[in-house]
Amino acid sequence: AFRREWDDTSGAWDVEPAAPGARRTESNGRDRVRISEIYCKVRIPPPFRSRQYFLQRSVWTRDGDGDGEILCSSRLPLEISAEDEAKGQGSVTVTDYLSLCSARNLPGREGEPPSVAVTLLYFEDTRLPSQLVNQIVACRMETTLVKTEKAMREHIRRARGKGADKADKAEEADGVDGV
Q1: What is the pTM assigned to this prediction?
Q2: Which of 6, 34, 61, 169 is deepest in the core (most CB within 10 A)?
Q3: How does residue 45 score in pLDDT terms, banded at 50, 70 and 90?
Q4: Average pLDDT over residues 121-143
Q5: Is the separation of the CB atoms in 53 and 98 below 8 Å?
Q6: CB of 84 within 8 A of CB of 99?
Q7: Residue 167: pLDDT over 50
């Protein structure tokens, strides 16, 4: 998966189409909606155990202006099978997670080229001591944001090379699942 190419903490990043009957959300004027389920495992240095996540991802886009949103949230515990839970082999399961990435195209001002406004919202309870989380965020946030931006630009470059509809199908077929 593309995520493992740029995220060195990613131990697993498996994406599958959502199961029939999975939670759905309204399209709210968006042209395309793709729902998928994600299993990911994040390596954390000892003495702590790795974290595993069972997520549902919704990707919404509008063809007219190219605006889009990616929303990832924890899957409900009743949606996670015992077989899936066993994948982690001693990992801690994170059950409280939400992230949103929203991209909006903005017209250029007074002779300037158009630009893109990106909004990131992120919350999770890693079940680690808050002092450690604060230390990790202070030490790694800038590097993480730079790597994420670089990965997003590469994903856009790849998608533009394939065309939007073909890119969606290619992601599902070859595991290039974006960021």
Answers
A1: 0.68
A2: 61
A3: confident
A4: 86
A5: no
A6: no
A7: no
Tell which residue, 178, 161, 144, has the closest CA to residue 36. Answer: 178
Q: What Cα–Cα distance (Å) separates residue 13 from each residue in 24, 76, 118, 172?
A: 22, 19, 23, 13
d(CA 178, CA 55): 15
Residues 6+ positions from 95 with CB-CB distance below 8 Å: 74, 77, 125
HSE, side-chain direction, 13 A CA sphere, residue 141: 8
Closest among 53, 55, 40, 30 to 10, alpha carbons compared: 40
The predicted model gives 103-108 an average pLDDT of 83
Does residue 173 register a pLDDT over 50? no
Q: What is the DSSP string of 125-161?
A: --SS-HHHHHHHHHHHHHHHHHHHHHHHHHHHHHHHH
pLDDT at 111 over 80: yes
| CA proximity to 52, closest of 127, 137, 123, 122 | 127
Q: Based on the number of CB atoms within 10 Å of its own CB, is 56 exposed (0-12), middle (13-18) or buried (19 or more)? A: buried
